[in-house]
Amino acid sequence: MTEFQWPWQYSFPPFFTLQPNADVRKTQLDAWCALVIAWGKSNNVSQIDVAETSSLPVFKNPSISRALPADSIAVVLEELAKRGNLEWIDKTKRRGYLLWRSPAEWGQQIYAWAQTTSRINNVCTLYEINQGDDTADQEFHNLDGDILMKALRALEVSGKAELMDFGDNQGIKFL
Question: Inter-axis angle of helices 70-82 and 22-42, to 10 degrees?
Fold first, then answer.
């Protein structure tokens, strides 16, 4: 995996202060959302805890002694939620899933893998899908367990899979 490449804005001090002009702020929020999503994807960050956001490298750049203030981080997170890239885990909005793909998109990717590897009408354990050797080269390998379940439920709702319980283990049959 290559080191994350920060965009030019990350080294531009005014980027760390949300601007009052509506047009400039919209452009700035677009850039912040793109940055958080790209950083999360590159670093496999699937959950964000609001209490820890000010310490995340995406929101602070020590090389220019700048950090996005907590109230501005909250604005960025709400914008991500509006765009469907952050799904709050609880009603208090203390933790959220960072989604660079929707659960339905993850589900489609998993289903395409199942088709390519001749797993239609076969049962796979969730371990096989998430951590098995056969998925090591797939983007969904080691996907957050909760996001994986949302993806598989999306497949189930679309009639492409059936979730199964085996006591202490879970599996899915691709249809």
Answer: 80
The C-alpha atoms of residue 15 and residue 138 are separated, in whole angstroms, by 34
Contact between 126 and 110 under an 8 Å Cβ cutoff? The reply is no
- The alpha carbon dihedral of 53, 55, 58, 60 has a sign of positive
Mean pLDDT within 57-81: 96
Output DSSP code: residue 2.
P
Q: What pLDDT, in 10s, does the model give residues 123-171? A: 998 999 999 999 999 989 888 889 999 999 999 999 999 998 887 888 8
Q: Where residue 26 falls among pLDDT bands split at 50, 70, 90?
A: very high
Q: 97: part of which helix (H) or strand (E)?
A: strand 95-98
The set of long-range contacts for 163-168, using a CB threshold of 8 Å and a minimum separation of 24, is: 164/123, 166/125
